[in-house]
Design goal:
about 180 residues, mainly alpha, two-stranded antiparallel ribbon, 9 helices, globular
Length: about 180
């Protein structure tokens, strides 16, 4: 693997950390910064598991019911599907790419209609994402969009839609991880 290519200097170590939900937290913060409100941020502040929260919506049950049965078949399956939506849709994936993403990353086989329904449910849960996509569509209209990180002021240009959508919140996550590592 790649890890064997890198060897720390004597007396030093390399550390790998996984910040649970970091990109979704960053996305929620970006949405707050851009629009002043975010249903996603509200759910995080309320201590909700975003995957379970979406799963409850998919199943038409309360969040509390989902929490009680989260390790059981139907709720567990809906939570897995929700992960797919929560990690795939923020980057602006189209349905064909999303279906491939679901299969490659989560082992889920979805038809286009299922993907469309999931995205509708996801957008209903996080309606601020409609404006987010509209704004990033405007930035990348001519395939050369530039996004300036609103906290670090780093800029990234020459982007298409999905890259621009991902850059804003992934960049904030990277900035936070760098600050934490420092």
């Amino acid at each position: 693997g790649v890890g064997e290519w890198y060897v720390p200097r004597p007396g030093w170590i390399f550390l790998d950390a996984d910040y649970s939900g970091a990109e979704l937290c960053s996305l929620a913060q970006v949405l707050l910064d851009m629009y002043g409100e975010s249903a996603m941020a509200n759910a995080i502040v309320a201590g909700r598991d975003l995957h379970l929260d979406l799963a409850a919506s998919i199943l038409g049950i309360t969040y509390e019911e989902a929490v009680k049965g989260k390790k059981t078949g139907q709720i567990k399956d809906a939570r897995q599907l929700s992960k797919c939506g929560n990690f795939g849709f923020p980057g602006g994936l189209g349905f064909a790419r999303f279906i491939d993403f679901a299969k490659d990353q989560f082992g889920l086989i979805l038809e286009e209609q299922q993907a469309r329904e999931l995205k509708q449910q996801w957008l209903a849960k996080y309606p601020e994402m409609k404006q987010y996509f509209k704004d990033h569509g405007a930035i990348t209209r001519f395939d050369d969009g530039t996004v300036v990180q609103h906290r670090s002021n780093r800029s990234r240009g020459g982007m298409r839609f999905s890259t621009a959508c991902n850059t804003r919140f992934q960049g904030l996550t990277a900035d936070g991880a760098k600050a934490a590592g420092y």
